[in-house]
Amino acid sequence: VICDVDTSTAMPGLFVAGEDAGGVHGANRLGGNGVANSTVFGGVAGTAMARFAQVNGHIAPDMGVVEAAIDAALQPVGGRRGDLNAIRERLCDLMWQDAGVIRNRDRLQRALAGLGDLGAEHGETGVGGDDLRFNLTWHDWLNLDSLISVSRAIVRAALARENSRGAHYREDCPEAGDLQTSRYTVVYTGDDGLTAASAPVDFSIVAPGDSLLS
User: What pTM, to 2 d.p., does this model score?
Assistant: First the structure.
């Protein structure tokens, strides 16, 4: 999620830090950087959220949004059971083969079509019964829903970026492109579904080729 330096986002009242925060470490975000994201920006987020709460007080939730989220989560309950493990395995294979280390447009387009098929099959798969207490099958269904959504975002972003930066490599677009006019990828959900766009990188602190060291 894109956030400002105080961890605030475009949605008032939503703050983000740690593994969910985007843009702090650039193209090659290493796993260990999550510690810095969590500790440094976690502290920043706590301060910013307290200040926001003091100024704005309690804000009532949009119950329409809440009810829509509940309905979406309960979609598979009581439906005919399916093989969620098989869908998840096919998802892993598809992403590895068509959206893995070396990418190109044809394979990414094939991945997008395959994700559409998996998403449709997943949506038609139920978890049986109506008792949700310790219902691990329901948890698996929800987790798989998130996995498919994230996979779609990855593929959309990879298709939109027609150059090779960081861990993203397109064999049909192997050049890194002009670093001075770098843009970062933004994936968002709108009325017409998932969309990938881009925005310019702000080099106000240090530009490509420059150094903060004197």
Answer: 0.87
